[in-house]
Amino acid sequence: MSHIELKNLRKEFGSLVAVNDLNLTIEDGEFIVFVGPSGCGKTTTLRMIAGFEDPTSGDITIDGKVVNELEPRDRDLGMVFQSHALFPHKNVADNIAFGLRMKKIPKDEQVEKVKEVSELVRITDLLNKMPGQCSGGESQRIALARTLVTEPSNFLLDEPLSSLDAKLRRELRAECDRLHDELQKTFIYVTHDQEEAMTLADRIVVMNKGRIVQMGSPLEIYGDPVSYFVADFFGNPAMNLVEGSFVAAGSGFEFQSPQFNIPLPANFNNITAGKGTLGIRPENVTIGATDTGASIRREIELVEPLGKDTLLYFSTDADRPFVAVVEGTQAVQRHVEVDVGFPDGAIFLFDANGDRIR
């Protein structure tokens, strides 16, 4: 395992700043996930760690040694790409053994290592097949095996599951998690899928516009977002975010919007009058009166049963729907008015700049 540090890392492509003054320490054995929208700089950061891109400025250190000038092959890193990049004219066993041949490992040792790693990723029955005879999920397992067999200190994975269907993604997410647990090595994983980040990561690094906007455990990122951007990015269904204004009312403040007005809890200490956004996650919205917060009366516009849960969509004048999640066994009907509750402890507030108000 290796200790990796990124110090004041910056990458420019002409006038475009892809990564801007990034500082990060990745601990030995950690499963860390870079997540963010397309163009946020996550893949560029991974490619700089791997050695496929040179930083414009800043340092990458592995075990205290600056590796900026080292070739990718000399960094002891294993890379798994979105594209499987398998040799179509070689069978699966030869594809897996390719890195070992490049290192001039003896043939009998190659055979043994290929056998071991194919058992680890559960593809022993594929070794004599050609890549064209394998499914997408099998091909991704082969690509993982080809990286694992060289026994790198760290694994870099660049959106390896994005081309697979939902069922295969779930299966291979579990496989990645199992491999990390068995190997006890550092995994650095890039994805735009917040569900992948939440289910895999020990620590999530949220990026936007080339910068880190928040780092933390999955529960910290989900439950304690620092900004409108992070709150909106994580959650399925997404957090209800309503734009409006904070207006002084008596000894406290009221949130006013074209959709509804509600009094704000007294425990917010830093509210100032002006424009802002109120947020509440769909699973925290209550249907029926709440004892710990405000409520409004709204008509259920759409009911979407999902089995265990049911999504309720409410009529508003906003561009995005207002959603609540209730148990699938709860009886609800369209075009019925209900009390929609905002429990005090579930409300998020963001100022006009998108920063969280505590």
Tell me the strand percentage band. 35-45%
Q: Helical percent range? A: 10-25%
What is the succession of H and E elements?
EEEHEEEHHHEHEHEEHHEEEEEEEEEEE
**Cα-to-Cα separation, first versus last residue:** 39 Å
Give me the side-by-side strand order of the main sheet: 6-7-8-3-9-10
Structural class: alpha+beta
Poorly predicted segments = none
Mean pLDDT, to the nearest integer, reads: 92
User: Tell me about the biggest sheet?
Assistant: 6 strands, mixed
Cα-atom Rg, whole angstroms? 25 Å
Number of strands: 21
> What's the overall geometry?
elongated
Oligomer category: single chain
Task: Count the DSSP helices.
Answer: 8
Describe this structure in words.
This protein is of the alpha+beta class and 358 residues long. It has eight helices and 21 strands. The strands form four sheets. Strands 6-7-8-3-9-10 form a six-stranded mixed beta sheet, sandwiched between helices. Helix 2 runs parallel beside helix 4 (136-148). The radius of gyration is 25 Å and the shape is elongated. It starts with a strand and ends with a strand. The mean pLDDT is 92.
